[in-house]
Amino acid sequence: MSAATGGAAPDAAARAGAGVLTATCVSAFVVNANTSAVSILLPAISEDTGASLATLQWAVTGYSLVGAAVIVTSGALGDIFGRRRIFLCGLLLFVASCVFIALGGSGATVIAGRAIQGAAGSTILACGLSLLSAGASGDAQMRSVSLWGAASAAGAAAGPLLGGVLVDVTGWQGLFWIDAGIAALCVPLTLRTVPESRDPSRPRSVDLAGTALIAAVLVPFVFAVTEGADWGWLSAPTLVCFAISAVSVVGFVLVEGRVRTPLVDLALLRNKILVGSSVAILVVAGCINAIMYICSLYFQNPDGLGMSPLQAGVATLPAAAGIVVTAPLITRFVDRLGARRVIASGFAVATAGFAVFAFVDASWTYGTFVVPLVVLAVGLGLANGPSSSVATACVTKEQVGAASGISNMGRYVGAAVLTAVTASLFNAVYTHHHAPGTATADALAAGFSRASIGLALFCALGIALALLVGRIRPTGPPTAVHYAAAAAAGSHTVPTRPTNGEPQATHDPPH
């Protein structure tokens, strides 16, 4: 009887582990596929709802803005009230947002639904990774995280293609109905197979004021950079938005210095390695989201390349493939060259890719876009992986979770701000050239060219940021934790831990 009992426990543990892995990986795939597919859907949504593409840009940036404000808080709520419980709340909210968007008939409902999805998606990713980390240890944990990272990367890569297929077959609403159905199926699976877990040592207070102030910093700022060209950069509305953001920054610093469990540990911002790697992550996330946004619009515009949604989805695959293929190679590069050189090289390669796009004109065919798309994707992938790993390898064991939160927040902020800036620049240049009577095709090409020059400058900034990372060298060959971090780096910073004691920011921690 004791033998039977002994055999039952491992079987139950194995089933629970498989359930956690299935629920979290499927949900990560769906969330990332949904996120990357939306840019492909925007022209179809615009045609169906009558909302302008400039307005629908908020369906992309609104998602990231809310995600930036919520991702750290949702992880904290999971630690306190139960990670499975908050994960389920994220799934249910995601289902509700998909249904709301699919049933809505206006641009406003799409934008509002996407903002809700930003909260749901960041909660699913943050709590899903926490469930995986709590449900296993050692090599088993790293294998699970690697699979989760692979599922996230696959979703991000497949999203534009799936979105293009569904627009042609079901209409743009089909993506949201299917995502709602898959997320809904994850709910009973989670209830049946995923055990609850908490962090009993964590204080039960949550920094809701910090969450609200993050939103108060970002939303007016993005409004100002998006609408400033139309309002006038020195107009009252633009200056008021910038003023609200500035006051909110001051309020955030004051609040974070006084609350018991701050959203951001301000002391960590004195760690130049963490700051440099987090800003590098911000730039990478912003550049890849921004270029995918303007590529989707340009490829589908009748005066651009005139592609169908399906063709545009297929056309983005080279860029997605560049990032996915690069991920497993990064750890070997870092082992041989060090993180700083790999990050700087990645940004240099991406800068070259964007610089080629500065020469876009109306005569370009899709074949001319392919090579620079792959080049910049490989470059951004090279910069992103080591930055994500460095962000949590440069702090003490007790600071790893907070450092992961800072870099993940940076990922959402970058996606929101750089997409908004790029969209605003694209539209402003297009309008400036088109108004005097320039051919629409030439005006579109000019918008694409100037937006790419802006992104090239951001990537060049990334080369300088690599200097802040310091001389970070590995202590030996890559281990499972490094491969897991690389696999997940496209969508999330995995909390890796130092392996040679407690490194200081000015020393040489492992990559």
Question: Care to describe what's here?
Answer:
With 511 residues, this protein is mainly α. It contains 17 helices and no strands. It has helices at 2-49, 53-81, 83-103, 107-135, 138-170, 173-193, 208-231, 236-256, 272-300, 309-315, 317-326, 330-337, 339-357, 366-393, 400-434, 440-469, 480-488. Helix 14 crosses helix 17 (480-488). It is globular, with a radius of gyration of 22 Å.
Q: In which range does the helix fraction lie?
A: over 70%
Q: Label the overall shape.
A: globular
- Quaternary: single chain
Tell me, rounded to a whole number, the average pLDDT: 84
Poorly predicted residue ranges: 1-6, 498-511
| N to C succession of SSEs | HHHHHHHHHHHHHHHHH
Number of helices: 17
- How far the N terminus sits from the C terminus, by CA atoms, comes to 49 Å
**Estimated share of beta-strand residues:** under 5%
Tell me the structural class.
mainly alpha
Please render the helix and strand layout as text.
Layout: H1 2-49, H2 53-81, H3 83-103, H4 107-135, H5 138-170, H6 173-193, H7 208-231, H8 236-256, H9 272-300, H10 309-315, H11 317-326, H12 330-337, H13 339-357, H14 366-393, H15 400-434, H16 440-469, H17 480-488
